[in-house]
Amino acid sequence: MPHAPQQADAAVLTAEPDMDGATKPHSELDAVLSGGPFHVALRAAIAARGLPLQRVQHHLSRYGVKVGVTSLSYWQQGARRPQRPESLRAVRALEEILQLPEESLIRLLAEGDEPAAGRTAARSYRSLVEADGVLERLLAELDVPVDGGLHTLGLHERVRIGARRELAGRESHHIVRAHRDGVDRFMAVYHGDPGCAPELMRVQALENCRTGRVRHHHDTGVLVAELLFDTRLRSGETFLFRYGVEDGTSGVSREYARGFGLAGGQYALQVRFEEHHLPVRCHRFAQHSAAAPRSGRQELPLSRQYHSVHLVEPRLRTGIVGIGWDWE
To answer: How far apart are CA 123 and CA 140, in angstroms?
Structure first.
């Protein structure tokens, strides 16, 4: 896992040089500082000042605040939100370093924690493997290797957005091939939107599998479910199965992203909305990693008759791909 896709391009601003490499904000920066969300405003402010993240980190150290470049990158990409006391100190220092109005970034953080009408909470781009070792710990609890012995030949996901504009659930149809003998299960990973309650979610084994053990981590919204096959696959054998996750536990959703650790087969993602709650526009995005900048932005047509939008990746690459949408 707050994010505003429609404002993401505003982060690249033309600016006038000032002392120490800083720059003067333009009206676009004023707009995102006023309307948020936090990570878009932070990214716009850094871009407007023309400071590389290493330079921002150096300025923070002069304020006695230690924040890594990776954390700064996560903050401005929406992958993480500053929450700890040290991180909040860093945000206040950033307001001075970036020459922003007092409380401008802190206010956006507070508003993001309690979304007001018309304001949306965002899905995190955080890579599950990189999310403070949460995924590794959950897999360790289940005593399963990170490499499950399966390669993805095809994956079709259908995401449902409910009447409250929330992430209501996901259904996944997998086609896999075993690359070692004896594989008899798949570890399904689901990452809910900020504020979700994974302990209230429900995993459904829909076809050619049954649900085994389930683990979750409330703070990060990560859920891991064991899906058991009725056979032990030999190396080279293929298998098809389908499962779903019923969610609906978080606030307004603005995107769905999927991370892939290995290159592989085809990926198709369809997002379906309620008939009377359609977004105004949709787009595809990609990232090489959770810390990398976004690329491959492409507007996607929304079918108003069928209330859905989709993308197809003919061949998976490592990294993150997803669909974002803008509400009125």
So the answer is: 26
Residue partners of 299: CB distance under 8 A and separation at least 6: 281, 282, 283
pLDDT over 70, % of the chain? 82
The secondary structure of 243-281 as a DSSP string is: EEEE---SSB--EEEEEESS--SEEEEEEE--TT---SE
Q: CA quadruple 32, 197, 125, 49: dihedral positive or negative? A: positive
The domain segmentation of the chain, as residue ranges, is 5-113, 134-326
Write out pLDDT tens, residues 105-156. Answer: 877 776 554 333 333 333 333 334 445 467 778 888 888 876 789 999 999 9
Q: State how far the Cα of 77 lies from the Cα of 63, in Å rounded to an integer.
A: 23
CATH code that applies to domain 134-326: 2.60.40
Peptide bond into 115 cis (omega under 30): no
3-state secondary structure of 205: strand
Supply the pLDDT for residue 1: 38
pLDDT tens digits for 79-110? 777 877 678 888 889 999 999 988 788 777 76
Give CA–CA dist 111/92, Å, rounded.
Answer: 16
Whole-number Å distance between alpha carbons of 264 and 287: 16
* CB burial of residue 113 (10 Å; 0-12, 13-18, 19+): middle
